[in-house]
Specification:
Length: about 170
């Protein structure tokens, strides 16, 4: 997404989620730096790159993508495995501190073309309208994508990502 698209709210987010970022492996493009993500990285380690998801513009929804291309959890190295849980814990603590959310959902999906990544989805009070189970997450994510309010617009996503990054540096 071009920098000038960031102020276009849901339309700008939809442009990014559509064909404008198509590649053989989007995650490889992002973690290598060849494809910058709006909001930038909130954290980066030897093995993982973490950034705000803009396809589903829930503030603080962080994608933790492996830097090495692989798809399956069973393909992780010992070092990657050892680094993942502490990183997820740091992100979750930062979400609690910055966003004030009490709970989060963690998703990992093997039946995808993309390489290994984990979604860390903060559970906001507004999500209660969609239920309180794993079945409620997809409708909540789609709501965020379709709703053109300031909370779901790129300027707010950038602000939240910046606050999370500051918290993760501490």
């Amino acid at each position: 997404m071009a920098q000038d698209d960031l102020g276009k709210g849901a339309a700008g987010v939809k442009a990014l989620a559509g064909g404008s970022m198509a590649t053989n492996c989007l995650s490889c493009e992002i973690v290598s730096g060849r494809r910058p993500v709006p909001c930038g990285a909130v954290a980066e380690t030897e093995h993982f790159h973490c950034h705000q998801d803009v396809a589903y513009p829930v503030p603080g929804l962080i994608i933790v993508a492996a830097k090495r291309h692989f798809r399956l959890l069973t393909e992780m190295t010992v070092a990657e495995s050892a680094a993942l849980i502490p990183l997820l814990q740091r992100i979750r603590r930062a979400q609690a501190a910055v966003l004030g959310v009490e709970h989060a959902y963690f998703f990992y999906n093997e039946d995808t073309k993309h390489h290994f990544h984990v979604w860390v989805v903060p559970r906001y009070d507004w999500m209660r309208a969609f239920g309180k189970s794993i079945d409620s997450v997809r409708p909540a994510l789609l709501h965020a994508r379709k709703t053109d309010t300031p909370d779901f617009q790129p300027p707010n996503l950038e602000r939240v990502a910046s606050e999370l990054k500051r918290e993760l540096i501490r």
